[in-house]
């Protein structure tokens, strides 16, 4: 497939960084995008349904085989780290080393490699910057070492890196989106068997746009709150006697009020994802607005993963006429999305920015999203 034009631009910087760090040319360049999840939040680790699309922000990796592991990044001061093995690598380099480790653990052996990373996926914005890195590294190493890995399996391997090496108990949504999404489409995916459908998502044809509001309030998946939500879901499923909350009876009720609210979110969010897919298949994009807003309400009150910044952005967008709005990603900060009329973009941007200022919150970064291309080799 042809490379995304923006990914090509970023690749030039990644290649230059590789040359500066190592004094040689890379063997190739690989790009993997961040993502927005349209709907289906915190359902992935409950075997549920998700609907992500790729953003035109990419992590790009320049790579070449070598005699020892070397990791370079354009983040910060352009640090280069070397290691004789993949053991105990920490910080930003853990996402690179962990992916190589996960490939080896999964039966796809890879050897020492020089890697240089450049990314413009916003860090801490809930737009999957870590998965973008992992997936770019994964397809780079797979190509260099001759492994033809099914993309769904590759997503599980990248998830293994995040869960077991980095230590963040995320589901498979982010890595699947980065590897599998297609330009101009939103991906409806069943997280139980990773079956998927690429659903047309042409907002411009209906005079609509999707705003992404990065609240500049970083979220951190590796902290205890995310892990606690996952533990709550596992305990709720255990009490119900089902494999996961995907299988929870629609009108089930638990004695524990907190677990009951967690279960209610997952059950209703799966219903919203299914309904959203049905509406988009019919080409009626405007019809998903109320579902987006209902998702945010559920995440705010039942799942308790929203934040002051996210609620402010959603409330302001809706107050200014957005058709629907919700937080996206793991929560506890990060980003929100708003479905808006294309001719109302400036009005809603002003309302969201003004509301943040009035509340004494950081000035948000707002941009219009398009459904971009998933992970691919750039050069």
CATH class (first level) name of the largest domain: Alpha Beta
Counted beta strands? 13
Helical fraction? 25-40%
Task: Summarize the biggest pleated sheet.
Answer: 6 strands, mixed
CATH architecture descriptor of the largest domain: 2-Layer Sandwich
Helix- and strand-based class?
A: alpha+beta
Summarize the structure in words.
With 379 residues, the protein is α+β, with helices and mostly antiparallel strands. The protein has 2 domains: 200 residues, Ribosomal Protein S5, domain 2; 170 residues, GHMP kinase, C-terminal domain (Alpha-Beta Plaits). The chain is built from 10 helices and 13 strands. Strands 5-4-6-3-1-13 form a 6-stranded mixed β-sheet, with helices on both faces. A hairpin with a 6-residue loop joins strand 10 and strand 11.
Ordered list of secondary-structure elements with their pairings:
Blueprint: H1 5-22, E1 28-37, E2 49-50, E3 52-65, E4 69-73, E5 80-83, H2 94-105, E6 113-119, H3 129-144, H4 151-166, H5 173-180, E7 185-190, E8 196-200, E9 208-214, H6 224-240, H7 257-281, H8 289-301, H9 308-319, E10 324-328, E11 335-341, H10 345-358, E12 365-369, E13 376-377
Helix pairs in contact: 2-3, 2-4, 3-4, 3-5, 4-5, 6-7, 7-8, 9-10
Summarize this entry quickly.
With 379 residues, the protein is an alpha+beta fold. Helices cover 40% and strands 21% of the residues. It has ten helices and 13 strands.
List its traits.
alpha+beta; globular; 13 strands; carbohydrate metabolism; EC 2.7.1.6; 379 residues; 21% strand; Ribosomal Protein S5, domain 2; galactokinase activity
């Amino acid at each position: 497939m042809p490379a995304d034009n923006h990914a090509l631009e970023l690749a030039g910087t990644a290649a230059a960084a590789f040359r500066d760090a190592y004094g040689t040319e890379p063997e190739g360049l690989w790009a993997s995008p961040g993502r927005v999840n349209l709907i289906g939040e915190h359902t992935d680790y409950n075997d549920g349904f998700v609907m992500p699309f790729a953003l035109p922000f990419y992590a790009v990796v320049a790579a070449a085989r070598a005699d020892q592991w070397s990791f370079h990044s354009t983040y910060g001061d352009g640090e280069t780290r070397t290691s004789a093995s993949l053991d105990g690598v920490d910080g930003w380099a853990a996402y690179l080393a962990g992916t190589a480790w996960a490939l080896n653990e999964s039966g796809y052996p890879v050897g020492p490699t020089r890697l240089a990373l450049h990314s413009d996926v916003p860090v801490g914005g809930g737009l999957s910057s870590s998965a973008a890195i992992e997936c770019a590294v994964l397809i780079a190493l797979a190509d260099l070492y001759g492994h033809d890995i099914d993309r769904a399996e590759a997503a599980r391997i990248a998830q293994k890196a995040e869960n077991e090496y980095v230590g963040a108990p995320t589901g498979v949504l982010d890595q699947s989106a980065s590897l599998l999404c297609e330009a101009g489409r939103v991906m409806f995916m069943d997280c139980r068997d990773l079956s998927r459908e690429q659903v047309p998502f042409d907002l411009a044809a209906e005079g609509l746009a999707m705003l992404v509001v990065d609240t500049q309030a970083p979220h951190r998946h590796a902290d205890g709150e995310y892990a606690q939500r996952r533990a709550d879901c596992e305990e709720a499923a255990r009490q119900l006697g089902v494999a996961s909350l995907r299988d929870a009876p629609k009108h089930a009720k638990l004695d524990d009020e907190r677990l009951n609210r967690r279960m209610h979110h997952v059950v209703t969010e799966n219903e919203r994802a299914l309904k959203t897919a049905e509406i988009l298949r019919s080409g009626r994009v405007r019809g998903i607005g109320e579902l987006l807003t209902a998702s945010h309400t559920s995440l705010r009150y039942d799942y308790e993963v929203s934040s002051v910044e996210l609620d402010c952005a959603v409330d302001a967008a809706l107050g200014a006429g957005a058709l629907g709005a919700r937080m996206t990603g793991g929560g506890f900060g990060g980003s929100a999305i708003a479905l808006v009329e294309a001719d109302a973009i400036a009005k809603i941007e002003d309302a969201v920015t003004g509301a943040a200022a009035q509340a004494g919150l950081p000035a948000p970064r707002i941009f219009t999203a398009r459904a971009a291309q998933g992970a691919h080799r750039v050069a």
